[in-house]
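Hey, quick one: can you model this chain's 3D structure?
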Amino acid sequence: MITMETINKEIREIIKDSYPNIKELNPAQKAVVDSGYLKEDTNYIIAIPTASGKTLLGVMAALNTVLKGGKAVYAVPLISIQNEKVKEFKEFEKFGIKVGKHPSSSDIAVMVFESFDAVTRFSWNTLREVDLLIIDEFHMIGEYSRGPTIECAITRSRILNPGMRMVALSATLQNMPELSSWMDAHVVQHDYRPVPLYKDVLTTEEMGLKNKNDVILKILNTSMEEESQALVFVSTRRFTESLANHISGKIKRKISPEKRKAFKEVADKILDVPKRRGTLPTAVCLKLAECVENGVAFHHAGLFDKQKEIIEDEFRAGNLLMITATPSLMYGVNLPSKNVVIRDYTRWTGQGPQPIPVFDYEQMSGRAGRPGYDDEGYSYLIAKSVDEAFNLKEHYIYGEIETTNSKLIENKDAVYKQIITQVASTLAKNPQEILQFFNTTFYGFQMSNNEYLSAFSSDSMEYEVNEALEFLMQNGIIRATPDGLKATDFGMIIAKSNYTVETAVKLREFARSGDIESSKLLYEISRTPDIPVISFKGRKSKDPVRERLSKAGIFAVDMGLSEATAATLMEWLDERSEYEIENAFNVYAASTRRTSYEASLLVKFFRRICEVMGIYTGLDQLDLLSARLYYGVKEDLVPMVLSIKRLGRRRARALVDAFGTDLRYVSREELLRIEGIGPKTAESILKWCRE
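Sure thing. Here's the predicted structure for all 691 residues.
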């Protein structure tokens, strides 16, 4: 029998110090360790339920590797998970283990899939130093956008560093034997959950209630009596807000003075976020704070990142009763709750509303039950009628999860990108070698091992590769030479970036147009797939966006998300605050900073494209535009914000309004009279003036 006492003493000491609540291995963890997990170098796929201690198993393997003098990479799909894990693993540093975000400077590097993929493309020396790759949320390999990235990173790693051990941490998958054969991995599956999970479908009809929201209210009332919490998934941002607002109004009279005081403190923290960023609270912020005062929060991509962090932390601390969230939260940070309610089991797609996959239902349900707090967890789907409930039970509760299939060939951009990578990195010099790479991917494995498709798999793959190659050659990304296929200078730029081929081609076409005017470039960037778009909040008139674009000489027919994003970026450059932008365009303006930051990087990418094309006029203007986007300032403030660290747009503008742009004759005392300027900042300003 494996217990903590039988594990390597050094590993045990680090775990004891870093995870003081873990006294013993649970049955799932014991089954994994018992299989020889810490003694062998075999690849592993570990499939156990959510909240059953997958992270600890990854940590044990990483510590085992590092203590033997090796390096480990812990790959995750999202930046939010990366930040959470880095914070968690930093505890190991007191034992002399370096934790960071890149293996060149860390013993344990937590990397998002795209960053690790970049290492496999051009940092081969670094890749060959990695002894262990842990892939968290491995089931994402079947997801359309990130799946091909981690699939090809794994494939390339196995070619370039065949001695690297791989450990995949996953939810249970339907086709585990297929995945384990491809990865040559030992599988350990276990159904242990520290908190038993009960799934059910509730109906408004049987409960004698008018609508689904009344069912949620009833669940929350029971939760409040038990002093537990609820997490509710709905399909859109607007629904998270309307549901939170509705429920918060219904329970406000039932909240004790003590609880109300705790909720008010959380609401104040929420409102403090925009204040610290130099903007008045937006309508969304005010609505969120109002709901939070009654213990209910909504959570979606239209909030400030810091606000989402506060909601997550306060919910974990028991200072919120309920969160209403969009499904993106199921892949995010660790956020368990005794009760999980899935109100909307459809999701809007390009083909209209579609039922969510059984796999997503399992992921959301898996949030139910807080280890260390709850004895059991409950997951509820809500139906209107008994017939609907019967169908939902059959499909979701008793049905099987979908087979995890590679989305590599479906994602055209992923195919283009991988071909460019193989050619640019000299791993492939001809179509046959490219084909060979694709045949070793999970997609290639699935095709060649499918009894119905194996006869056609070779021809099918060849067709896809040749069609993609033709596109890349026609667009001047790859060229044929006597020595084989080579990436052009334009192709090398794409290969060394994380941007899509579509973005690169669009920006090159814009460069060729010869009219590289800032507003038009912003509009072009807003139409690429690599910019985080700004969304409209509702169905109000979109005329203000149309007017703003017209003012910049851009005349668009439809006012979609690209247009809202471009108008927002233009206002950001004019030093408008998130509050002003939201009021002007009726958009979720809290994500403006992130969008403008990404836009500033895309301007730099565009600059490199111009250089490759031999376009050198206007490059200084591009540098200026990139800096303005990054800081959100007009042209006159750029020298100041670039030179004085952490000055920011608001304080810089206050200085210029008070003293003009020449600060050489301003005294320390005068500087300290400006709101927000403290002794340290004043010293930095004076030092800059003296230089």
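One thing worth noting: The radius of gyration is 27 Å.
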